[in-house]
Amino acid sequence: MSSTWPLTKAQATNECDRDTLDSYYSYVRNETERLSSPLSAEDQVIQSMPDASPTKWHRAHVTWFFETMILSPNDSSYSRFNEKYAYLYNSYYESLGDRQPRAERGLLTRPSISDISDYREYVDVAMSKFIRNSNEEVWQASQPLIELGINHEQQHQELILMDILHAFSRNELYPAYQKYIPTASKNALPVTWENYEAGAYEIGHTGKDFSFDNEGPQHQIMIPSFSLASRPVINSEWKQFIDEGGYERPELWLSDGWSTIKDKHWSCPLYWKKIENNWMTISLSGLHPLDMNSPVCNISYYEADAYARWANKRLPTEFEWEIAAKNSSISGNFLCSGFLRPVPCEEGQIKPLQKLFGDVWEWTQSSYSAYPGFKPDAGAVGEYNGKFMLNQMVLRGGACITPIEHMRGTYRNFFYPHMRWQFAGVRLADDV
After folding, report:
1. Residue 50, preceding bond cis, omega within 30 degrees?
2. CA distance 54 to 43
3. Which residues have CB under 8 Å from 138's CB, separation 6+?
4. Contacts of 30 (CB under 8 A, 6+ apart)
5. What residue spans define the domains of the chain?
6. Distance (Å, rounded) from C-alpha 204 to C-alpha 326?
7. pLDDT (tens digit, 0 to 9) for every residue of the chain, 432 residues total?
């Protein structure tokens, strides 16, 4: 099981000295290496679909980010490790030049994984020196970018696990990233409904401590009264949806969703497999029986929306979800738990809202767009989130592969509605 950073995110960033931030930087960088260590050289090169990236590419790209955004512009003594890496490991920053096509990242057998390890070490030495020794003016200007780079790397830690699971799922040997860690499966508590009154609510991050730019500015919004389910939808409930023809009834589906499931021949969540009339699932622990009491995972927005329609409910808006999260502690089944899959509730876990954080990202009905007053930052870093605010849907709450230090109640994740290799599930909502 992974460790967690012993300090809060605020202590590790805005409210800390240089030594603490340097230690936190090292902690996150080491976590990436820990997550990569079970993978062979062959594992780290594979790219199973255009939306995924090889582990080796992730390790290099997050290093390129620190080199390009922080060291090169601010440290005159720094020399790039390899000038050609600027082409190989740029992701989508148009203002920084051409790049390796995303769908062809798996063609890069060279540099080797040991070369990338050398690259990471080279940049880490320079970053530690920069954090500890840069003059105060440069330090003050650079600190927000260092915080962004650290959070950016944590996003890619989750992507490493998402992408390698997808690659392993395409292998009939069903390789295991780690050994299966059993849990005591018990019957899930019946769904209850938590009501919230209509009113004006503050939405978004205050700007104190770190947040991504898309989480602000904080603003007030009027919300009608609503109800939120006490827990996410679980696998046994999704099986009932399948058994009652949920994937065969066009009236349940958005038009694009119906076209998608017909074109792709979807009839169940991404990693479900029916073997000898038994439902199995593929996780980072290989192929094993599906736990019917765990939250359903790896479903698209289209599937979540169809299920809600079938259940005569709806998906929550991201604002409703955030209102509910204001009184919930950020705890649960995150990366540090070590399961790397959704698990049933713990014994005695009886509270108004279960598993609001962790286990699965929860789809909302909200399209990913800018909050009132949002303005992207100047320069290349302004491309981080803002230019993707179209045709995607917002998810909230984090998952079983999300670093817990990375999570906030205002965090806005986003994916296209057809995507489902991310660890996404669904919690229902209703009008009052």
Report:
1. no
2. 8
3. 74
4. none
5. 9-169, 193-431
6. 11
7. 556 766 555 545 555 689 999 999 999 999 999 999 999 999 999 999 999 999 999 999 999 999 999 999 999 999 999 999 999 999 989 889 999 999 999 999 999 999 999 999 999 999 999 999 999 999 999 999 999 999 999 999 999 999 999 999 999 999 999 999 998 767 888 999 999 999 999 999 998 999 999 999 999 999 999 999 999 999 999 999 999 999 999 999 999 999 999 999 999 999 999 999 999 999 999 999 999 999 999 999 999 999 999 999 999 999 999 999 998 899 999 999 999 999 998 766 667 899 999 999 999 999 999 999 999 887 778 777 778 889 999 999 999 999 999 999 999 999 999 999 999 999 999 999
Helices (H) and strands (E) in the chain, counts: 12, 12
Q: Which fold has domain 9-169?
A: Four Helix Bundle (Hemerythrin (Met), subunit A) (1.20.120)
For residues 56 and 45, give the distance between their C-alpha atoms in angstroms, rounded to a whole number. Answer: 6
Rounded CA separation 228/427 (Å): 8
Maximal C-alpha separation, the chain: 66
Which ranges in 71-135 belong to alpha helices (H)?
72-74, 85-88, 113-133
Q: Read off the amino acid at residue 123.
A: V
d(CA 9, CA 25): 12
Polymer length of the chain: 432
Strand 286-289, strand 413-415: pairing? unpaired
- E-strand stretches of 95-241: 193-196, 199-203, 219-223, 226-229
| Other beta carbons within 10 Å of 351 | 13
Residue with tokens 């592969």: 401
3-class DSSP assignment, residue 412: coil
Residue 71 per-residue DSSP state: I
* Half-sphere exposure for 82 (CA within 13 Å, toward CB): 15
Provide the 3-class DSSP secondary structure of residue 194: strand
Counting other chains too, the contacts that 93-98 makes at CB distance below 8 Å and 24 or more residues apart are 93/380, 93/383, 94/383, 95/379, 95/380, 95/383, 96/68, 96/380
CATH top class, domain 193-431: alpha beta
Torsion of CA 40, 42, 44, 45, to 10 degrees: 170
DSSP 8-state code for residue 17: -
Q: End-to-end alpha-carbon separation of the chain, Å?
A: 42
